[in-house]
Amino acid sequence: MSNEPTDTEPTHDEFTPDPDEVEYPSTLRITSLPAEQAQAAALERAERWEQGEEVPHVVNFEDRTRLRQLLTDRRMELLEEVMERPPESI
After folding, report:
1. Is residue 4 part of a domain?
2. Within its chain, how far is the Cα of 25 from the centroid?
3. Hey, which bits of the chain come out as E strands?
4. Who contacts 9 (Cβ-Cβ below 8 Å, separation ≥6)?
5. Is the dihedral of CA 86, 87, 89, 90 positive or negative?
6. Which of 26, 33, 44, 81 has the most CB atoms around it within 10 Å of its CB?
7. Domain count, the chain
8. Is 57 strand, coil or helix?
9. Is residue 62 part of a domain?
10. Is 52 left (phi over 0), alpha (psi -120 to 50) or beta?
């Protein structure tokens, strides 16, 4: 019997690209939508992307309390401020 691994799945290093080699979208959109709406929006973005259109990357939180757990009070204030008065740059 051989000691060679039989698993042909890629390793983490082979599967995960170097962050410097990844092209990130120019826009990150954070939403809080019910699952059905988020899924419909994701399908619509995928269709636009397949047609060559640049689309934003979206992170959806079905429940706003989960977003609140992730962000500090100050970060929430900054997000709300940016939503109310979009800056020219960040």
Report:
1. no
2. 9
3. 28-31, 57-60
4. none
5. negative
6. 33
7. 1
8. strand
9. yes
10. left
Domain presence at residue 19: no
d(CA 31, CA 40): 13
Flag whether 28 is in a domain. Answer: yes
For 61-76, the pLDDT digits (tens) are 998 888 888 888 898 8
Query: For residue 55, which amino acid is it?
Result: V
Write the Ramachandran bin of 84: left for phi over 0, alpha for psi from -120 to 50, otherwise beta. Answer: alpha
Note if the pTM is more than 0.85.
Answer: no
Quick: pLDDT tens for 31-41: 889 999 999 99
Structural domain containing residue 69: 24-84
Residues in the chain: 90
- DSSP state letter for 52: T
Q: Which of 22, 57, 26 is CA-nearest to residue 42? A: 57
Q: End-to-end CA distance of the chain: give it in Å, rounded.
A: 59
Return d(Cα 78, Cα 84) in angstroms, integer.
10
